[in-house]
Amino acid sequence: xxxxxxxxxxxxxxxxxxxxxxxxxxxxxxxxxxxxxxxxxxxxxxxxxxxxxxxxxxxxxxxxxxxxxxxxxxxxxxxxxxxxxxxxxxxxxxxxxxxxxxxxxxxxxxxxxxxxxxxxxxxxxxxxxxxxxxxxxxxxxxxxxxxxxxxxxxxxxxxxxxxxxxxxxxxxxxxxxxxxxxxxxxxxxxx
Length: 191
What we know:
Blueprint: H1 4-20, H2 27-34, H3 38-42, H4 48-72, H5 77-94, H6 98-102, H7 112-138, H8 148-168, H9 175-190
């Protein structure tokens, strides 16, 4: 469990990456944003790497909790998929700066531990959607001809594009409404 100060450091780090990119994410810039000394930050995290690691761990933990809730929920597969879709958008609406971290895998490419975590998060999400997808195929709610890997590419690629478009437009549209519209379109294409 993170302390209040650690959570503040994480939140400000996400905002800093969002505003200045990974190049602007320095302990010096972070300390200015928070208003504490650089050694003060190092008392809570040993390095920038440790902060990035915690950001990914927190996001992964949130995804695990969502998946657990989905698996315990006895709703039909279509409702499960819609719930998953909505939870993703809710997470980004609550913390728009997170988009710059989660969908900027290139910032983790030179750190194997961090890129492995990003890949784990992607794999977890794809596994959840794949399991629901198979249930939908069994119940003949979507086409049996559609390949699961292809569906995941379309599904997650569409989410990524919509979320980034929302971010770069300055949140000029209702992400949840557009997300629902996208979900319904994807579903109709899958039938």
